[in-house]
Amino acid sequence: MRTLLTSQQMKAVDRYMIERMKIPGLVLMENAAHGVYEAIRAEMEPCSVQVFCGTGNNGGDGFAVARILLANGYDVKVVVLGNPSDISGDAAENFAFFKETREFYTVITNREGLEALPEADVYVDAVFGTGLSRPLDGIYRIAAEFLNERDALVVSIDIPSGISAQTGAVLGTAVRADITVTFQYPKIGHFLYPGREHSGELQVVKIGIDDGCDIPLQAAVCVYESDDPDMCLGQRPLDSNKGSYGRLLMIAGSYGMAGAAVLCARAASRAGAGLVTAAACGDVVDVLQHTVPEATCFELADENGVLAKEAADMVLKLSQGKTAVAVGPGLGRGEAVEEVVSRIIAECDLPKVIDADGLNALAGHLEVLEEKKGEVILTPHPKEFSRLCGLSVGKILEDPVKAAVDFAAEYGVTLVLKGSTTIVADQFGNATLLCVGTPGMAKGGSGDVLTGVIGGLLAQGKDVYEAAITGVYIAGMAGETAAEQEGEYSMTPMDTVRYIGKVIDDMVVEYISADTIHGCGGGEYMPHRLQQPTEIVMEPIGTPVFQASEADAAEKMEAEETAESPAASAEEAMEEEEPTIVVPPVGEAEVQPDEPAMDFLEKYADDPKPATRAQRRRLEGLQEKERRPFFRHRAKEETEAADDMTEEELVNKVREELPPDTPKGPTRRKIG
């Protein structure tokens, strides 16, 4: 697992290292340049290199790289794009070497100048970094297109020029790098398409010390990649049984769509659910009993092979005694299906995962989510998400992390936005990117497999966010394994199911216990020792910190004696046997006033104020756009409702929305 930062967060980390850790900016730039040099040296012996530099800090990194390459025997030519008089700060310090020698650099302002350059073995892209927010134009666009036409190694510094560090979007045009060397922490745009494709091989280089900086700890986005060592499962205890690993109720399938139910049920069983109960119409039950013998099956009321409204009562009755619900794959469409799905959400208090036709049943009826009982996981692909939320697919893909996070927070759900980089967002503003899977999974039925895996993990007692992340990882890795064995063209979703067991087996470690419906390793049956109360006695040493008058002290003692309960004497007798800890108070001279909590992002963000009125208007517009959520109607309704409430009604409402008390016993391990 890797923590991902936004460009603003990375700027704040840089300022922290400079101001708090006292690392000069030139040293950070030099360390970054050495990292890029090592990446080039690992690929190519001394050869011809052209370094394309902008006039900002990214260009400063490029000047430093060029100097180090020159010192190590490479034939280097620096290509400056823009006006050299605009180069300032640490970048100017590194440019000074080339400015004085006047031998190793050239300034180019048009395509003709680029075409006149000789061919090189390596091209370094140091034009724009993570701060870019506008489309490339002019000579910068021409340079990006020129680099993309070269048949040579292209190395980008920090992020390919033209890629948004926040969304991975192409801003006009962008450099396609073979290697991208970024610094300290990777950025979100490195892992979202098309930025992920343009970045090529991503290398992360530490350039300074940021110990004590809590900005990375505050980051709300992280990423898991293939064969990630941090993604693991616990070893199952010997004294467990099928009841320890939960009971999943699956509602799936309709006439002609029995395969979706088969894939979902088999995936849930492979994911470790103790018992899978499949509820479907009669035609589907016949298929399930032949193809998924480990599942128990119940026939639901149907009309022409699709669930009838009467099925809702049957499903709610079947949910008794279960630990999770999976609904949607191959379910079909119609008013009856919409009613069944709505009642499951509103009346069943089990955690549930909803996919495919379950999502279609929700489209246009999102008010049902406001009445939900139990946690809900939604697993749409972009087209399903578009039908669900009302945004166009293009709008969603402009900033998929923001769209997923805003929707999850608005409706209080966990959202799995499926894609080449799958995004899992929870209702608290956190997001996890999962770069797993293969193009071979782009076939009908792969989503049904994912639903089954997540449902199986939910049934075992995993937290909804953890179950969603782990489920996406397992399904994606199983797909990668299937592609290796069967080929991307020929693999099927059933091949993915077949390799789930191998993936899970590789994830199991001995040092943690498996999740069960009773907690880690059957924790419900573990005896718990009651914590003994500890008395803290203050013995004054020298002058006490707080001095009260004798009258105040006597009055306080009298109030304490009056407030004592009848059981105080019994407690006093017990206290004689309890251990005491003597804590001497600190002397008056040693008492220091509390320092106000530091907002690292606010303190160390290095955003200079725009100089012109037009720049200020543009910056204010961008900031307002970033703050504006995609989904706001529910927040307005809640605000209006809150204004009409009395203080007591508001307190009661807040109490109702608080999460239930955490059960006693060992807590489950949280991923990452």
Automatic annotation (TrEMBL):
Belongs to the NnrD/CARKD family. In the N-terminal section; belongs to the NnrE/AIBP family. Residues 551-579, 603-672 are annotated as: Disordered. Residues 10-215 form the YjeF N-terminal domain. One of its GO terms (molecular function) is metal ion binding. Its cofactor is K(+); Mg(2+). InterPro entries: Carbohydrate_kinase_pred_CS (IPR017953), CARKD (IPR000631), Ribokinase-like (IPR029056), YjeF_N_dom (IPR004443), YjeF_N_dom_sf (IPR036652). SUPFAM superfamilies: Ribokinase-like, YjeF N-terminal domain-like. Transmembrane segments: none annotated. Residues 640-649 have a biased composition (Acidic residues). Residues 617-639 have a biased composition (Basic and acidic residues). Homotetramer. Residues 225-507 form the YjeF C-terminal domain. AMP binds at K418, G419, S420, T421, T422, G447. Its EC number is 4.2.1.136, 5.1.99.6. GO terms for biological process: metabolite repair; nicotinamide nucleotide metabolic process. This is Multifunctional fusion protein. It comes from Christensenella massiliensis. (6S)-NADPHX binds at residues 57-61, 129-135, 140, 158, 260, 330, 381, 448. It comes from the Bacteria. Pfam families: Carb_kinase (PF01256), YjeF_N (PF03853).
